[in-house]
Amino acid sequence: MRASDSFLCVVWLVLVLTGLARVQGEQPGPRQQWKFTASALDGNQLRPAIGKLAGEIKGSFSLSEQSGLDCLRLGPADSPSGGGILLTTEQDAADLPVAAMSVEAWVAVDETAEWGGIVGAVLDSGTREAGWVLGYRKDRFYFGLATEGPGRITYLQSGSPMLLKAWYHLVATYDGAGEQRLYLDGRLDGRRAGQQGAILRPEPLFYCIGAYRDDNDYNPFTGRLAEVSVWHRALGPEEVAARFEERKNLFPG
Q1: Res 27 pLDDT > 50
Q2: Which of 5, 110, 214, 245 has the most crowded CB, counting CB atoms within 10 A?
Q3: Which positions ≥6 away from 12 have C-beta within 8 Å?
Q4: 3-state secondary structure string, 139-181?
Q5: End-to-end CA distance of the chain
Q6: Contact in structure between 215 and 223 (CB atoms under 8 Å)
Q7: What is the pLDDT of residues 133-186, one digit of tens each?
Q8: DSSP strand pairing (69-74 vs 128-137)
Q9: Is residue 3 scored above 60 in pLDDT?
Q10: Contact (CB, 8 A) for 131 and 94
């Protein structure tokens, strides 16, 4: 091999390794995302912003615009046809997090509930407990999660009460090593240890936005949603704070 050929091979190898290091150093973005704008809706069908999972809106809903912000208003919860957005009942299509996760929502709750759901794929029926859910109970947000370790759901509740009809940025994370975290407007608001291992898959599955739903519970949400995102990794505190700071001025109040 000529010296010039050897030099070109070395240069090529350096470029490849540099590119791999850069890719490996980057943190992957959301696996799924839904933005509640007019362009995302076709009748009662919701198109995803990221990923392939579309949704069907149940019950009453309307698009809303406030101070230049587009959002979807769901409710009231007593609609005769139920409420919320059913994403899927199929395990393969759901593409749910397994080892670790984060879920983010920009949300305003209009009516409190005993068990309100913002987004989740959960099963809490007697001794059968699996999945995860981000929601609210009375005046507190919560993050429910069940993993292989205990095999039961633990509900991490926010330390701060919520105000009805006020916008909030919520992020819940599970690091795969035992800790749940709940962030409120960019700041850590609660943490809990005890879960361990892979996230249990609910069977049957009801992957929903705007409802706490399993095989014996169906509690629709009443309020507004601007965006929901799901990662297959745990966001760090700096990432959560940066995401809140990036968009907080878009939300009235």
Answers
A1: yes
A2: 214
A3: none
A4: CEEEEEEEECCCCCEEEEECCCCCCCCCEEEEEEEECCCCEEE
A5: 69
A6: no
A7: 999 999 999 999 999 999 999 999 999 999 999 999 999 999 999 999 999 999
A8: unpaired
A9: no
A10: no
The residues facing 64 across adjacent strands are 71
Neighbouring residues of 54: CB distance < 8 A, sequence distance ≥ 6: 45, 46, 47, 48, 87
| Structural element, H or E, at residue 192 | strand 187-193
If phi > 0 it is left, if psi is from -120 to 50 it is alpha, else beta; for residue 8 that is alpha
CB 144 within 8 A of CB 195: no
| Widest distance between CA atoms in the chain | 79
H or E, element range at 188: strand 187-193
